Amino acid sequence: MLRAPEGMQEYQRMAAHFGRDLVQLQHELHRMKVATKEQDYPAEVPQAPDFLVSLRSHTVWEKTPVKLFCTVSGKPNPIVKWYRNNVAIEPLSAPGKYKIENKYGVHSLIISRYNLTHPQFTVRPLIVSSFHFKLHFHKGVLSFPLLSSIHPSKLEVTLLESFGVTFGTEGESVSLVANMVVVPDLPNLPPEVMWYRDDTLLMPSRWAEMSIGGGVAKLTLPHLNKDDEGLYTLRIWTKDGTAEHSAYLFVKDATPTVAGAPGAPMDVAVFDVNADYVLVSWKPPNTTHEAPITGYFVDRRKSGTTDWVQCNDSPVKVCKLPVHGLTEGASYHFRVRAVNKDGISLPSRMSSGVTAAEVESDVEVYICRCYVKRIIFWAPPSPRGRAPVWYLIEKCEGDSHIWQRVNTAVQLRSPRYPVYDMEDKKSYRFRVITVNKYGSSEPSEPTAAIQKVDPCGVPSAPRQVIASRNTKTSAFVQWEPPKHANNLMGYYVDASLVGSKKWFPCNHRPYKFVVHGLVPGDTYVFRVQAVNAYGLSEESQESAPLFIDAALSTPSAPYDISLLNCNGSSMTLAWKRPKNTGGSKITSYYLDKREAESVEWKEVSPSPAVHRTFTVENLTTGVFYEFKIQAANLAGVGLPSEPSKAFACEAWTMAEPGPAYDISFWEVRDTSVLVQWKPPVYAGAGPITGYFVDMAKKGSSDFVAVNAEPVGHCYLKVSGLETGASYVFRVRAVNAKGVGKASDVSDPVCAKALPGTKEIVCGVDEETGDIFLNFEACDVSETSKFTWSKSYKEITESSRVSITSSGRHSKLTFVNAEKEDLGIYSVAVTDTDGVSSSYSVNEEELKKMLDLSYNIKHPIVPLKTELNYEILEKGHVRFWVQAKKLSSSVNYRFIVNDKAITSGYKISHDVSTGIIQMTIEHFTKANEGTYTIQIHDGKAKSQSSLVLVGDAFKAALKEAEFQRKEHIRKQGPHFSEYLSFHVTDDCTVMLVCKLANVKKETRFTWFKDDEEITVDVPPNPMSGSCSLPIPMFSRKDQGIYKAVLGDDRGKDTSVFEISGKVFEDIINAIASIAGSSASDLVLQCTPEGIRLQCYMKYYTEEMKTSWFHRIGGTSEMAWMQICEPTDKEKGHYTIEIHDGKKSHTRTFDLSGQGKWKLDFHLHILCDLAPLQSLSLTCTVCGDPSPEVTWFKNEQEVVSDDRFKITFEGGKFASLTINNVHVEDSGKYSINVRNKYGGEFVEITVSVYKQGGDIPEPKLGQMAKPISTNQDLSLVQLQG
Q1: Residue closest to 441 by CA, chosen among 401, 392, 405, 406
Q2: What does the alpha-carbon distance between residue 229 and residue 677 come to, in Å, rounded to a whole number?
Q3: What is the C-alpha to C-alpha distance for residues 1129 and 805, in angstroms, rounded to an integer?
Q4: What is the pTM of this model?
Q5: What range(s) does the Ig-like domain occupy (predicted)?
Q6: Neighbouring C-beta atoms of residue 779, cutoff 10 Å
Q7: Chain-centre distance of CA 322, in angstroms?
Q8: Buried (b) or exposed (e) across 453-482, using 16+ Cβ within 10 A?
Q9: Contacts (Cβ under 8 Å, ≥6 apart) of 1139
């Protein structure tokens, strides 16, 4: 960021002033150091400046920082000066652009936000190779460059955690956050922070919210849009200049309202603003899998309103549209929507507001081509007159002088106008007339003849797409520009996972960038499309497949050089591999040595070391040596390590073993880690018998032993760790003489599993049946290899297992798994951050896997059911089996008594249900035997058998014959339900049956004991059911009942025997209904004494009724007679009616309460010769004497000539009926009452013809009164 000119002079003056003071102080300090050193040490030998590490070429991204490094030696220290294109770099000339540092002898130049220096460069990489040094040597003088920048800020700012590459979706909100340390941290004086997007300084707005404070700088984009995609840079002014951080933000298309619709356009801008005309432009969206875009709609909205108005009636095919007809002085916003065959996209972000206003111009009248249209421009007249003007456009074809008005419907006030109606292959001339309210001007000079030319169209496809590695999640894509650029806007890059054929967009704005968000370890191909106002070009050819991993670089320096053994003339060294391998396998190590008192390094061996141990020969006993090591890979030789400690070349003679080395960590999980090491090179006086492992938390020196007893192998799984905590370990070897020297302390390891960590899975191949261990790595590099071990010893060549690896997957397959293969199997992935896992194959697990393997190698067709049989309705017998799954190519056969069935039976199968069946239509005694089915389905087999002999066969045969007869029976009229009984609510027993397949001619007949029963209502077979009522059921109704149904097609018979248990069931059913209807017990006086009566719907002696005295009853009641009652008969009386399931109980209390004050008897006297009168007499006892009232059919009887009522002596009450007739039949009752209560007695009088029998109900008839004539011969009294 450049300063204002007025502040630059003061800035440089102060910098030079402070710079001179600093130089003087440094000179004096240096002089004092030299003087002190000369007193204690001999003078240094001057050494010419030399580059230990030279500058190298860099490939960097445009607009990203780049750092150049070098290391310089010389005595005294050289002064370093940086140059660019032979011009010295002055940081003051561009504050914030350059930063020069010198730390620990490493000189660096930091270039902030590098830009391409020549505009026609379009290839992505920028090779920075024109920077160089000039070294100046001044004995005894050390000079410093001036400060790189000076800013009013006095704060020291250090960036800590900063935002990385971010992905979002349109409509979402995203925040970019950077944490920093500010010294001093003043709440009211935060650092000065600036945010950039692609070199554009961002200002707070509705689309961008910024905050700084509390050590946090934050940029929030509350409503993401593809316009927000780009490279975001945070620049903070510090005491020493600026601190910067940059990262990309990618914004995906929002889900369209219509499936298949394109994404929204972006970067809507407004140009050429006039009084009633503007030119709107935009950039087209990327269409990776959507249909091509066919056009665009442009909408406008006046500021302060919410209504959008569509500007064009039909879609415009290019990314620019002249919009006229605006209101002068009004402010407008514009937005664009893309259209394809599937629908219309969501609208773009609206443009900034623009005001339609008149613009002065000195341009002469001329024609400008604007894509498929022509725009006419002209200079307004001068002078304009005293009133506002507008313009008329006229045209003529060719050289003719016939002018036609163009803008007939539009009053044009802007000095420009788009022309739409030009025909192909015709030339036109145009002229303009100015008009105001006072009149019109003379026409302008006509333009030269112009002709419509076909537009240039979309650009051609980019060429030679090359993808290269960048980081573990990004790739660098470059290409050659299209041959025909045609006003190129930029490019869209698409990527596809190799083998998937599914492309996804890498950027959503057409600019140049790195492809981020890729999956490490996967392989991708890329393609590019060029973009201009006409749309997208054809896709380029695909790039070569690229494995995603970090870009190649030289490895970092090895470290922690340790001494493993010394015999007096040689030393065995070990060291740790570089923390950064540079994205390539380390191929060799170069060792240098020097004596501790020397400054000259010498090469140890002309041949580099291949492993991380090396024995240095030809050393001098008693001399101290220092060593340094450099690692090399495909990119070259890396930086040297720090010099080792000075090791004395003296032979080791101690009895204890030397140190173990090369401690590594595998299978790192949240609470455990596997520690591995290599045994000591020096074993001491005896063989090594075990190891102790010690651990401590990072930063602590308090080591504790992990194992109480030494382990005999070079690994140990440590559990019980604290998740997220870091630990260090060391190992001590043990022999018979004691515990040896501890190894060097390991690097810290954090007890936390890598993201996406997966474990080894044991399984069985579904095709081959092979047992395998499979592992999927969460991270791999291009040089990664899967190393399998058993008991943590690498499996190199083995006849027991085979190993295959591809991509992220590796599989160990057992050739012929046996108990010999039990043990712990582990796998480690090289060139990763410790990706590894282990699996213990125990005896139980192996047995389970062997069973699965056997089933696959010897497959069977799984059966849901074994072979079974069922009897069908015609007496057919179906043998069937059901498999869980069948293919369409299944083969099978049935075997009966060792003979395969080839014909004679119906055999079929259904693949969808898995059922295979065989049907025997005529099942006879000859079909007894063993039935077997054999199934072959691909490689799978199955067999099932059924033994059908003896009693099992007889039962099947009997059922088959029955079903066959049933089928024949049902061909004519038949019973669908045979005879059964039920009892109605009035206790009538009904025999019922249901009929089927009947017709009008079908006959139905009832029989009892083979005698036909005549019923009142003939049965109707067409109703589908028939019933036979049996009223007043009793023991006399026992017998065999038969129903016969028949016509010309045949007949059917149903038999029902009422006896034994059936009779008891019917009585119980009657008792259930009668017992439920039983009334309370009532007291009735009789000539013999008193009677307890219980009324119910029906009563018969066969019902199980319990009394404790003499009992009797009628069809309507049950009663108990108490003759000549005395006081000893007082008490509770109960009747119990049993229906087989429960008892129905009624109780009466004869305890007294004055009831015995009323005592009466009833005597019925009948004059039988001749029967002309009837006398009803009742003996009444009571004190005081009761009142007597007679009733007939509940109507009081009044004494007259025919009905004579007498009450003699207060004891004998009588009713005499003279000239008895049929009409005198009915219920007669007497009611006697005194102050202690009353009693009521009923009798029934029935008058019948003389000499006739009393009729009884018959079968098939319900009980009903029988009418008689007037000849009276018998009176039946009941009650």
Answers
A1: 392
A2: 49
A3: 108
A4: 0.48
A5: 49-86, 760-842, 973-1059, 1172-1246
A6: 21
A7: 49
A8: eebeebbbbbeebbbbbbbbbbbbbbbebb
A9: 1068, 1069, 1071, 1072, 1075, 1104
Measured CA to CA, the distance from residue 1140 to residue 980 in angstroms comes to 19
- Amino acid in the structure at residue 503: W
Which residue reads 């090469």 in tokens? Answer: 603
Alpha helices in 1059-1195 (DSSP H): 1060-1077
Number of Cα atoms under 13 Å in the Cβ half of residue 334:
29
- 3-class state of residue 749 by DSSP: strand
Residue in this structure with the two tokens 């007889």, named with its chain if needed = 954
Q: Which of the 8 DSSP states describes residue 1109? A: S
Q: How far apart are CA 184 and CA 159, in angstroms?
A: 14
The CA R_g of the chain, rounded to the nearest whole Å, is: 58
The number of angstroms, rounded, from the C-alpha of 890 to the middle of its chain's C-alpha atoms is: 38
**How far is residue 371's CA from residue 487's CA, in Å, rounded to a whole number?**
11
Give residue 1075's pLDDT band: very low, low, confident or very high (50, 70, 90).
Answer: confident
CA nearest to 912, candidates 941, 937, 938, 883: 883
Q: How far is CA 583 from CA 55, 87, 630, in A?
A: 21, 36, 16
Look at residues 987, 1001, 1144 and name the one whose alpha carbon lies nearest to residue 1079. Answer: 1144
Count of alpha carbons within 13 angstroms of residue 1093, beta-carbon side:
18
**CB burial of residue 1161 (10 Å; 0-12, 13-18, 19+):** middle
Model confidence over 887-921: pLDDT tens digits?
A: 888 999 999 998 998 888 899 999 999 999 999 98
Place of tokens 């015709």: 426
Tokens describing residue 861: 């067709």
The amino acid sitting at 1003 is R
At residue 951, φ and ψ (nearest 5 deg) are -60, -35
Q: Strand runs (DSSP E) across 1014-1107, as ranges?
A: 1025-1030, 1039-1047, 1050-1058, 1082-1086, 1089-1095, 1104-1106
Which of the listed ranges 454-468, 614-628, 794-808, 1199-1213 does the model predict with the highest average pLDDT? 614-628
Tell me the C-alpha distance between 315 and 294, whole Å: 7
Q: Where are the beta strands (DSSP E) in 634-685?
A: 636-640, 647-648, 661-666, 673-678
Q: Check residue 361 and give its pLDDT.
A: 42
Specify the higher pLDDT residue, 344 or 33.
344
Region of 918 (left: φ > 0; alpha: ψ -120 to 50; beta: rest) is beta
Q: What are the pLDDT digits (tens) for 635-660?
A: 888 899 999 999 999 999 999 999 99
CB atoms within 10 A of CB 574: 22
Distance CA 668, CA 675 (A): 9
Yes or no: say if 943 and 935 are a contact pair by the CB < 8 Å rule.
Answer: yes
pLDDT at 90 over 80: no
Which pLDDT belongs to residue 693? 95
State how far the Cα of 311 lies from the Cα of 279, in Å rounded to an integer. 12
Quick one: tokens of 1109?
């005295």
How many angstroms separate the CA atoms of 345 and 830, rounded?
48
Which tokens go with 1103? 């019902």
- SS3 sequence, 890-926? CEEEEEECCEECCCCCEEEEECCCCEEEEEECCCCHH
**Range of 559-563, 1089-1093, 1197-1201 with top mean pLDDT:** 559-563
Q: Are 269 and 262 in contact (CB under 8 A)?
A: no
No. of helices (H) and no. of strands (E), the chain = 4, 96
Contact between 282 and 268 under an 8 Å Cβ cutoff? The reply is yes
3-state secondary structure of 1277: strand
